[in-house]
């Protein structure tokens, strides 16, 4: 579990995150939703230590991340898997080498052990025959699956996904959603997904947190979302044609 207690972040005279608190449960897909510019990505960067908070605390299973020094944070980050919005694969490395990269950086595994683990992870994301290909030789959906394989290579306790379906077609998005859901349950990870894709929210979320103007404006479950009496949340949710049709269908 990750516990966020009243964290804030200020850039200049602008407060991007304002006293946000959350409980992000283990073995669950915790979705953070909101409009572009609401503060979702800054929140994620605070959680992994890419941006220092200006107030509040972040706890990883009882460990105060906020109070850790550089080396302590570096050690904890070995337990974190990160799926970046664009995949962030290294163009000069093969698929196999991309997945093995964190193992080479952070473990004492031999080369054969790293390759075995990389191959295992690639099979887990249904890419068993792509090892020697380069990123520019595979599709966008395959790149995301390679990035997921790399994110789980270190067998993380925590998985962060920043807009995992960005740039993908609806069918491929479903594949990525299902994969995130499956590995969350399989590895009992605390998974945090930043998204504005309401299809994904309704398909795989366990807990939903709505960020509005840097504040946690609402939280609940999927079923609660459809009954919420919160103007800003409803405006965001039903801006999607899919959600409008879904709402009408349930009437």
Structural account:
This protein is of the alpha/beta class and 251 residues long. Helices cover 40% and strands 24% of the residues. It has ten helices and ten strands. The protein has a six-stranded mixed β-sheet with strand order 6-7-8-3-9-10, with helices on both faces. Strands 2-1-4-5 form a four-stranded antiparallel β-sheet, covered by helices on one side. Helix 4 packs across helix 5 and helix 5 runs parallel beside helix 6 (170-187). The two termini are 36 Å apart. The model has no long low-confidence stretch (mean pLDDT 89).
What global shape is seen? Answer: globular
**Class based on secondary structure composition and strand pairing:** alpha/beta
Number of helices: 10
Low-confidence stretches: none
Record the strand order, biggest sheet: 6-7-8-3-9-10
Largest sheet, described in full?
A: 6 strands, mixed
Distance between the termini: 36 Å
**Assembly state of the chains shown:** single chain
Key descriptive features of the protein:
globular, 4-stranded antiparallel sheet, alpha/beta, 251 residues, 6-stranded mixed sheet, 10 helices, single chain
């Amino acid at each position: 579990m990750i516990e966020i207690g009243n964290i804030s972040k200020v850039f200049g005279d602008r407060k991007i995150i304002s006293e946000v608190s959350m409980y992000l449960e283990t073995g669950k897909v915790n979705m953070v939703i909101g409009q572009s510019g609401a503060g979702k990505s800054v929140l994620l960067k605070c959680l992994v230590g890419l941006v220092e908070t200006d107030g509040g605390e972040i706890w990883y299973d009882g460990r105060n991340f906020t109070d850790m020094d550089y080396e302590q944070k570096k050690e904890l980050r070995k337990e974190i898997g990160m799926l970046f919005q664009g995949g962030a694969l290294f163009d000069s490395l093969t698929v196999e080498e991309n997945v093995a990269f964190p193992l080479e950086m952070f473990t004492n595994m031999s080369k054969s052990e790293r390759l075995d683990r990389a191959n295992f992870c690639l099979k887990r994301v249904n890419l068993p025959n792509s090892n020697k290909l380069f990123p520019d030789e595979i599709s966008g959906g395959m790149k995301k699956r390679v990035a997921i394989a790399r994110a789980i290579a270190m067998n993380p306790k925590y998985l962060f996904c920043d807009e995992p379906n960005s740039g993908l077609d609806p069918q491929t998005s479903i594949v990525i959603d299902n994969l995130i859901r499956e590995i969350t349950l399989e590895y009992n990870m605390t998974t945090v997904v930043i998204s504005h894709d309401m299809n994904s929210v309704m398909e795989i979320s366990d807990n939903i947190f709505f960020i509005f103007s840097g504040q946690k404006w609402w939280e609940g479950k999927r079923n609660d979302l459809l009954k919420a009496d919160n103007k800003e949340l409803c405006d965001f949710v039903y801006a999607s044609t899919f959600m409008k049709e879904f709402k009408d269908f349930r009437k």
